[in-house]
Amino acid sequence: MAITEGNAAPAFTLNDTDGNSVSLEDFKGHNVVVYFYPRDDTPGCTKEACGFRDLWDDIKSTRTVVLGVSPDNEKAHRKFVDKYQLPFTLLCDPTHSMMEDYEAYGEKTMYGRKMMGVIRSTVIVDADGNVAKHWRKVPKAADHPEKVLDFLRSSMSG
Questions:
Q1: Separation between Cα atoms, residue 105 and residue 119, nearest integer Å
Q2: pLDDT tens digits, residue range 105-125?
Q3: CA distance 123 to 130
Q4: Nearest 5 degrees, angle CA 134-CA 135-CA 140?
């Protein structure tokens, strides 16, 4: 299923840092930022997560929740959340099934070599469960949360 703006976002259920099941359906009536990142506590992933953390109050004011998704396990997520005081939910996708549904796992080029891996990307799902915006590839992790907030303010508030 291709991720297409205006179409329904793929359903998912994954575990969070505490082993609780979290589904897209749980957030009906809210905007949802789903951002995909390769690995907890690595430089780019930390900058992106801390960016969302630092903009948290502004993001919440747009009736939006943030979900970070990576292949990491619950223990790694818990350490990451605790170390950086992340106020949003991280989800575990060790089989890459959700990432594949959201076009966030596949062939990518790193240091000139093709390989399979997590594609840093973001999908904003609107309150009705439809894809409002899809960044297929995030070039600068540190700058991305501000771009997400700008989109939320201009297109999703009210």
A1: 5
A2: 998 887 888 989 999 999 999
A3: 10
A4: 160
- The secondary structure of the chain as a DSSP string is ----TTSBPPP-EEEETTS-EEEGGGGTTSEEEEEE-S-TTSHHHHHHHHHHHHTHHHHHTTTEEEEEEES--HHHHHHHHHHHT--SEEEE-TT-HHHHHTT-EEEEEETTEEEEEE--EEEEE-TTSBEEEEES--S-TTTHHHHHHHHIIIII--
For the stretch 118-150, pLDDT in tens is 999 999 999 999 999 999 999 899 999 999 999
Please, what is the average pLDDT of the chain? 95
pTM metric for this prediction: 0.95
pLDDT at 157: 60
Which residues are known to be catalytic? Answer: 45
Give the model's pLDDT for residue 156: 76
Q: What strands, in cross-sheet order, belong to the sheet with 31-36?
A: 21-23, 13-16, 89-92, 64-70, 31-36, 121-125, 131-135
